[in-house]
Amino acid sequence: MNTHFKPTRRNILKGGGALVVSFSFAPQMANVALAQAAGSAKPLTLTEVDSFLAIDAKGMCTVYSGKVDLGTGTDTALRQMAAEELDLPLRRINLITGDTTLTPDQGTTWGSLTIQSGGIQIRQASAAARAALMEEAAKRLNVEKAELTVADGVISGGSKRVTYGELIGGRNFSIKLDPKQPVPTKDPKTFKVVGKSVPRVDIPGKATGTFTYMQDFRVPGMLHARVVRPPAMEAKLESVDEASIKGIRGAKVVRQGNFLAVVAANEWAAIKGAQQLKATWSKWAGLPEQSKLYEHVRATKVAKDEVTSNVGNTTEALGQGAKKLNATYDFAIHTHGSIGPSCAVAEFKDGKLTCWSASQATHNLRKQLAQMFAMPVDNIRCIYHEGAGCYGRNGHEDAAADAALLAKATGKPVRVQWSRADEHGWDPKGPPTLIDLRASLDGTGNVTAWESEFFIPQSAGGFNVPLVAATLAEMPYDRHIAPGNIIRNSDIPYKFANIKTVCHRLESTPFTPSWIRTPGRMQNTYANECFTDELAAAAGVDPIDFRLKYLDTADRRGIEVIERLVSLAKWDKRSSPKGGQSGDIVKGRGVSYVKYELVRTYVGVVAEVEVNRSTGAIKVPKFYIVHDCGQIINPDGLKNQLEGNIIQTVSRTLIEELKFDRSTVTSLDWASYPILTFPDVPEIIMDLIDRPTMPPWGAGEPSAAVVPSAISNAVFDATGVRLRSVPYTPEKVKAAMRGAA
Amino acid sequence: MATKSLNVNGKRVSITIDDPDMPLLYALRDNLALKGPRFGCGLAQCGACTVHVDGTAVRSCVMPLSSIKPGQKVVTLEGLGTPQKPHPVQRAFIEEQAVQCGYCINGMIMESAAFLAKNRKPTETQIKQALANNLCRCGTHARIVRAVKRASTA
Fold it and tell me: How far apart are the first and last CA of chain A?
């Protein structure tokens, strides 16, 4: 870091601190033009303090974050991290997120990295800013730095005082940041704000109807639009009968290639128009038969193999094993299922495009829109507004592209609101996953070899999930296949003598794939942790003892998670299955463990299940979880996230499966794609391990990874049958029990 | 075009509409600029659009304006309470931090408030049954149940 402090006066009209305040507090619309003018003055690089924060004359700090809050409370946690390093109370921290003109590009909000990566960058900028303010105060007050104290943005020493606002108000810090030379940050022992369950800043507004979601955002003179998607995924639009909506006042058809929509000044007119519009489409039936989905996956051409671990010689060891096991696991296609369908507003004005979106990656969306409209990226601004819960790349970016196309076509600002069927039918999907596993044990029950093969789509080109509007309207787009980092956790934390794990990256997958919470790591951990349980049962060993035997004993944090899980869940130490249960309802408990991506957050869980042997229904009354993500920023926020991960993944594991025919998705509402409801939600018992002196790691995904395997292992404990196909529907449970009988 | 008179959050309002069968949700959101009731499915499946009509929780996304009789009182999340003066159920949701993304929370609060008005001391099972047709995708259920329980003992 360059500690040289040379505050430079900003041009107030072009973008000084005073402007920042007015942008934050004044009504949204009035500030768009001002903030656009401000944009050119504000640094955005990751190596400038001014990219991340500004302090105005009144001592109010505005933090700029490229990472956005997707409904998990990170807006509060990021404020806590900045407030702590700056010695400011939370009420003096304002936060602007995901605005391509104002916030640095800290990467997509994905991969459990908002705190771990984005938060650390903000912490660094805050620490650098505070150090500079202290240095300047020492000079100004003529007091040794060591004698200065700070409270509430006021620096005191030698009976004199100066405020942050007086030192820097409205001017740039002009301090460089160098990630290779981190700025010293506070001793965690002195933390006042970090580590506390500070109430979330957004909740009062959300509970009283004053919060503005993306779906609430409006601009003057705007039209409402609804898209009309093809009835078959790749059908071509043959003709449109515009007269079919003639009776709806103000409703107009917009068509470009196979992109079709109805716009109107009135939202209900747009909805009715889209419902009533008559159009003819070509036939298309290129999807595989759902009942043969995994045969299709297995038969798909492999683009390349990625060997994610290779220890010893598994071929030889498997050949010599006294006992051999093999199993095939599969995991269904899932939709994101956001409760609020995607929505965006776009406006073309003077050759520039402004797009308001709930995208988790506004900086990347901007580049995709630039490509789509063949215009310079600098002429596009994307501004984040929080939408309904976002668990990965869902339909937000597509709604943005729809809105931009319609804004260009109509010459007016356009708001696109997807219908429920648009959301279920056209968000990109979590791809189907197929996994083969083989292992061998010697005569005394030691594992001698582990082999796995994962049949998963390739990542081809990059991370641009094609924008639906660009594909339909035949505008430029990258033909990327972007399922996310789905090879992680295909390798395992257990130290077997011979290990080989291979990912067969398939050329294609039936639906446009993307990442949904814990992409790949969930599916891979599911197969690995279930199969580990199969080996423990084959060896006749308690499944926790079995794991401890093969975990690296030097990895103390992992071992501690498991040891604390044993106490928390009052683990009943014995091998599975439990056996000796009579009656229809049988009970069992299952364990699962993950070290996320084998480099960070540790999670151990125990699921307790009840299986009804006559109906095949599974209930999950309890989940125990021990979680170590290092330094905890906001314990209650973390608990909220972990509860959400477990409940959502119980839903995905027990119920969820996208249904389709040869032409399109048929799960188009909540009746055909049900999710878990209140009566079936488990009680969750937690033990959070806080390590204030360690880096804060991600918590958005890891705890979801262990849920499907813990439930399958518990069902095995209860019934003696193995569930190897997500979701675990009553039909599959009954079929498995018939097979075992 | 026609005008329709409504009583919303204690105020008499008059709106201009093209279609007398337009669902109440769009009148509240588009004509009256209210943000509490939310569009989630348009099929009465998720509950995000819930409002009270004469104290009963209804799904405004499928309730035609024509079915609302003169004199019927519509109350939205905004009419229940404000950030400064929240309704006891709203206060309980804030105190329990029973929100993740919060998109479903309008429905959870409106459904719970109507339910608690009739069942002052419900059991946990009764709360879960009362909310069984309200969907949450983030997995906030455990907190929501705690919040309703808290409101019932306030």
Answer: 68
**Does B85 lie in the same domain as B75?**
no
Question: Is the Cβ pair A207, B86 closer than 8 Å?
Answer: yes
Given this model, what pLDDT does residue A1 score?
A: 41
Q: With beta carbons under 8 A apart, name residues in chain A contacting B76.
A: 209
CA angle B93, B95, B101 (to 5 degrees): 50
Beta-carbon separation of A683 and B142 below 8 A? yes
- Helical H segments across A448-577, by residue range: 468-472, 521-539, 543-550, 556-568
A196 touches chain B (CB under 8 A): no
Low-confidence ranges of chain A (pLDDT < 70): 1-41
Q: Closest Cα partner for A144 from A130, A152, A134?
A: A134
pTM given for the model: 0.95
pLDDT digit string (tens) for A130-156?
999 999 999 999 999 999 999 999 999
Are B70 and B8 members of one domain? Answer: yes
Residues in A closer than 8 angstroms to B81, CB to CB, are 208
A560 in reach of chain B (CB within 8 A): no
Domain span including residue B70: 2-79
Total domains in chain B come to 2
Do A276 and A351 have their domain in common?
yes
Contact A347, A383 (CB under 8 A): no
Residues A582 and A656 in one domain: yes
* Residue range B75-94, pLDDT digits in tens: 999 999 999 999 999 999 99
CATH number (domain holding residue A160): 3.30.365.10
Q: Give the pLDDT score at A676.
A: 98
User: CB-CB: which of A73, A206, A420 is closest to B41?
Assistant: A420
B86: which chain A residues are within 8 Å (Cβ-Cβ)? Answer: 204, 207-208
Last residue of a domain, one of B79, B104, B134: B79
Distance from CA of A480 to the nearest CA of B (A): 28
Query: Which chain B residues in 10-29 lie under 8 Å from chain A, judged by CB atoms?
Result: 18-19, 22-23, 26, 29
The pLDDT value recorded for residue A7 is 52
Neighbouring-strand partners of residue A224: A264, A415
The predicted-structure confidence for B95-130, as pLDDT tens digits, reads as follows 999 999 999 999 999 999 999 999 999 999 999 999
- Structure confidence at residue A28 (pLDDT): 30
Q: What ipTM is given for this predicted complex?
A: 0.99
Q: State which of B79, B97, B114 marks the end of a domain.
A: B79
Kindly list the strands in the beta sheet with A149-151, ordered across the sheet, starting from the edge strand earlier in the chain: A149-151, A154-157, A160-163
CATH code: domain of residue B149 = 1.10.150.120
CA distance A385 to chain B (A): 12
CB contact under 8 A, B142 and A684: yes
